[in-house]
Amino acid sequence: MIHYTLGAVESQFADIVWAHAPLSTAALVKLCEESLHWKRTTTYTVLKKLGEKGFFQLKDGTVTALVSREDYYAAQSEKFISETFDGSLPAFFAAFTKRKNISPKELQEIRRMIDSFEEG
Fold first, then answer.
1. Residue 23 in domain
2. Which residues pair with 24 in a beta bridge?
């Protein structure tokens, strides 16, 4: 399980890597300069920090993701539900839908997901 929570700026950086990986460090520097207005040194500093946390790897000038975007956000969702709703998905769903209406299309997708879990 992923035990580190990305900050807002780290999330923006991670989204760039996830969207383009694998990519060269030169390409990453350019993307971060365009999107985040960072200098090369800032890009390398954040890459190093997230590499030490196990998110990304820099090898032979190529940046790859060790953790996928989906896996990261799934772990964050599990952590939130565990800490806030004692791990109860129905309690989370009840709280979530109290203020947000669910469209028929969303409800149909949720039913499909539940049905696939029952079948599998």
1. yes
2. 62
Q: Name 66's Cβ contacts closer than 8 Å, sequence gap at least 6.
A: 54, 55, 56, 57
For residue 24, what pLDDT is reported?
98
CATH number for the domain spanning 24: value is 1.10.10
Q: Is 20 helix (H, G, I), strand (E, B) or coil?
A: helix
pTM for the model stands at: 0.81
User: Does residue 33 share a domain with residue 65?
Assistant: yes
DSSP 63: E
Q: How many domains does the chain have?
A: 2
Number of helices and strands (H, E) in the chain? Answer: 6, 3
Report pLDDT digits (tens) over 57-108.
Answer: 999 999 999 999 999 999 999 999 999 999 999 999 899 888 888 899 999 9
Q: Residue 108 is encoded by which pair of tokens?
A: 């149909």
